[in-house]
């Protein structure tokens, strides 16, 4: 051991220069270390008494490896975890622990020596000498013990340095996280609309986490509303989505726990519309609850464009960010409530948060009566029961049908539509059930009907009251048997179709007047949904006006940003007999007339329309309510008063308050002919 002093000097230098286990391992496995002759040196470290040991060793390619022991592997090499010194010959070691033969740290062992690393009665681990040569004398043993003691001091120094570094890093991270939470609070707390809040939050997350996609999910009476915001190519993409199937985020909803979604899960969710929305670029997501005062007010969905895990410290930070956003959402709600009590200004911004009241995409509502309708939609959507949608013309029956289809299990297929009033009676059966080539004059090729087109999907029959009476039994049979026959082919075709029908007529009155089959009526009336007219939900009119103005002006390339408060009040008080359809057309006309940034509304036209409506009421029409237009006596009375004339200002259709084509259709079903009353002209 003539080089012992120089080796101690080298070891001291290494002690001063090395702050990690890699430097120590490199020094101990250096060929220049002449104090001790050894092939390899391994080090086993333990962070505390109960911790599992970690083995550091160089492999055959001379690369430093780290092997973490577990309970199973530890039992295979039990001497690793004791506090004793061991000197064993290679054959004895392999005989006692044959599994070590395959371990890269214990290959080609002739002799094995393990010395515990103990400092101040604390076991730090141990050092393993593979194929070591030590002279069998007291002097050599003392030098060897001194050598291992210095290594122990060096290991203790490394552990303390790593601990200090970790504490310093933890303090730095906590300081950065605190500043980050202050920044995110400032970013969201002062926003006046949900869209501004989400957009500001996304910009913050993009800056700190390179996150380009985000959404906020909130409950809406049995279903969920999701506001998504994405950032790509310098542009913000904002959209609303609605769903009722929350299986993917069940833990977040029921247990208030974060939920991490993988790329595979997100890909599977993209096949269904009635689930949370994810853009095609999203490869992983973390959904965390937003909790304010022990109450969950929604969920934040953080998305990444890479399929990688979310570190626990990031998830914890996401939870703290969600708490700040929950506070901002509460402040936003309070601000909106206070704003309603403050006198309105002369002009109202159309960009105000009407999107907060968007339900099922295109349905805009904040009224209680409409919320009840949407509750019914959410209840019936997920089953295959037939739905009968009732409501005046222009109330949005087709939108409700689309919402039912979108939230159903058939949402992956398209919804096939058919307006019964727009199909001639002679072609009705062919349109509905299809026909074979040559089935009738003009049938030059085979045609697939609406039932077959809607197979595995939804068939929406609008204005079902206009369906010819002689075809109603065939529809009834198709509903009951799930089978149809094409015109010109005596072969049953099985179909799997969910039926949704709509009408603005009083089907029950039609049944009583023999204008509609009772058996079909009862088959369709499984789950009726009645949509209230716009006059019964005036609180929705300002939202609809803002929505239509924004959409139509954007389509026309106009920059309309406001509407006069007085004008909006006038629109809200108007009864709108044509309902939402009339309101939209009126707003479109207003946008066309607008030249500046403030919507120019021809309110004088509303006064004229209102006056005409009053005159119609004073003229006491034969039928005070449209429900009675199917009364046979009323139709005959109207024909007599109009001398058999149907159209025109003095015709029976005007007296009955219906369209000419509608009256003709009803007369055909009732077997009434107008020329029967021409003889009564005096």
UniProtKB/TrEMBL annotation:
Q: Which Gene3D superfamilies match?
A: 1.10.8.60, 3.30.450.40, Homeodomain-like, P-loop containing nucleotide triphosphate hydrolases
Locate the coiled-coil region(s) and give their ranges: none
InterPro entries the UniProt entry points to: AAA+_ATPase, AAA_lid_NorR, GAF, GAF-like_dom_sf, P-loop_NTPase, Sigma_54_int, Sigma_54_int_dom_ATP-bd_1, Sigma_54_int_dom_ATP-bd_2
- Which GO terms label this protein's molecular function in UniProt? ATP binding; DNA binding
Keyword Amino-acid biosynthesis listed: no
Q: Which CDD domains match?
A: AAA
* Key words, A-Z: Activator, ATP-binding, DNA-binding, Nucleotide-binding, Transcription, Transcription regulation
Biological process (GO) annotations held by this record are: regulation of DNA-templated transcription
Instruction: Return the PROSITE patterns for the record.
Output: SIGMA54_INTERACT_1, SIGMA54_INTERACT_2, SIGMA54_INTERACT_3, SIGMA54_INTERACT_4
Which positions fall inside the Sigma-54 factor interaction domain?
363-592
Q: Which SUPFAM superfamilies match?
A: GAF domain-like, P-loop containing nucleoside triphosphate hydrolases
- Which SMART domains does the entry mention? AAA (SM00382)
Pfam families given in the database record: AAA_lid_14, GAF, Sigma54_activat
Name of this protein: GAF domain-containing protein
């Amino acid at each position: 051991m003539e080089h012992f002093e120089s080796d101690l000097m080298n070891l001291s230098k290494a002690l001063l220069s090395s702050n990690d286990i890699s430097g120590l391992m490199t020094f101990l496995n250096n060929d220049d270390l002449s104090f001790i002759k050894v092939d390899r040196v391994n080090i086993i470290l333990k962070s505390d008494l109960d911790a599992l040991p970690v083995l550091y060793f160089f492999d055959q390619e001379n690369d430093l490896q780290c092997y973490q022991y577990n309970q199973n592997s530890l039992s295979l090499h039990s001497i690793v975890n004791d506090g004793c010194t061991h000197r064993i010959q290679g054959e004895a070691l392999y005989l006692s622990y044959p599994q070590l033969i395959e371990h890269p740290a214990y290959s080609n062992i002739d002799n094995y020596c393990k010395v515990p690393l103990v400092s101040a009665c604390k076991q730090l681990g141990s050092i393993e000498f593979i194929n070591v040569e030590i002279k069998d004398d007291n002097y050599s043993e003392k030098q060897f013990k001194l050598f291992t003691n210095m290594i122990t001091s060096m290991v203790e120094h490394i552990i303390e340095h790593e601990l200090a570094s970790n504490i310093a890093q933890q303090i730095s991270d906590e300081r950065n996280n605190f500043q980050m939470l202050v920044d995110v609070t400032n970013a969201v707390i002062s926003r006046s609309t949900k869209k501004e809040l989400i957009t500001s939050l996304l910009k913050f997350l993009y800056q700190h986490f390179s996150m380009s996609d985000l959404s906020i999910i909130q409950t809406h009476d049995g279903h969920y509303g999701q506001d998504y915001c994405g950032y790509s190519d310098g542009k913000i993409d904002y959209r609303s989505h609605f769903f009722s199937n929350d299986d993917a985020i069940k833990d977040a909803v029921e247990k208030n726990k974060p939920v991490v979604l993988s790329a595979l899960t997100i890909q599977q969710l993209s096949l269904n519309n009635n689930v949370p929305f994810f853009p095609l670029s999203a490869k992983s997501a973390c959904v965390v609850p937003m909790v304010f005062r022990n109450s969950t007010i929604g969920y934040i969905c953080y998305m990444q464009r890479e399929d990688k895990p979310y570190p626990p410290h990031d998830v914890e930070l996401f939870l703290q960010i969600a708490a700040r956003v929950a506070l901002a959402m509460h402040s936003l709600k309070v601000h909106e409530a206070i704003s309603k009590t403050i006198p309105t200004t002369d002009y109202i911004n159309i960009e105000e948060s009407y999107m907060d009241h968007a339900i099922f995409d295109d349905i805009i509502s904040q009224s209680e009566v409409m919320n009840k309708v949407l509750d019914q939609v959410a209840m019936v959507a997920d089953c295959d029961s037939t739905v009968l949608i009732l409501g005046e013309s222009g109330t949005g029956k087709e939108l409700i049908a689309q919402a039912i289809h979108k939230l159903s299990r058939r949402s992956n297929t398209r919804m096939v539509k058919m307006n019964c009033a727009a199909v001639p009676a002679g072609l009705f059966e062919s349109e509905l059930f299809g026909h074979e080539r040559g089935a009738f004059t003009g049938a030059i090729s085979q045609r697939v009907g609406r039932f077959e087109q809607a197979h595995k999907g939804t068939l929406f029959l609008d204005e079902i009251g206009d369906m010819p009476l002689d075809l109603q039994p065939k529809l009834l049979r198709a509903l009951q048997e799930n089978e149809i026959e094409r015109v010109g082919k005596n072969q049953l075709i099985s179909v799997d179709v969910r039926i949704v029908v709509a009408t603005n007529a009083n089907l029950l009155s039609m049944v009583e007047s023999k204008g509609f089959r009772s058996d079909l009526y009862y088959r369709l009336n499984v789950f009726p949904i009645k949509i209230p007219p716009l006059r019964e939900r005036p609180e929705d009119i300002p939202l609809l006006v803002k929505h239509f103005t924004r959409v139509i002006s954007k389509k026309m390339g106009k920059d309309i940003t406001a509407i006069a408060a007085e004008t909006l009040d006038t629109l809200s008080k108007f009864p709108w007999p044509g309902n939402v359809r009339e309101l939209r057309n009126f707003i479109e006309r207003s946008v066309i007339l607008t030249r500046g940034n403030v919507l120019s509304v021809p309110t004088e036209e509303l006064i004229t329309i209102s006056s005409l409506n009053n005159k119609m009421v004073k003229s006491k029409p034969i039928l005070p309510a449209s429900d009675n237009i199917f009364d046979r006596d009323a139709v005959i009375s109207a024909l007599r008063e109009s001398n058999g004339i149907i159209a025109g200002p003095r015709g029976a259709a005007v007296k009955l308050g219906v369209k000419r084509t509608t009256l003709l259709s009803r007369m055909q079903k009732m077997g009434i002919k107008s020329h029967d009353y021409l003889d009564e002209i005096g």
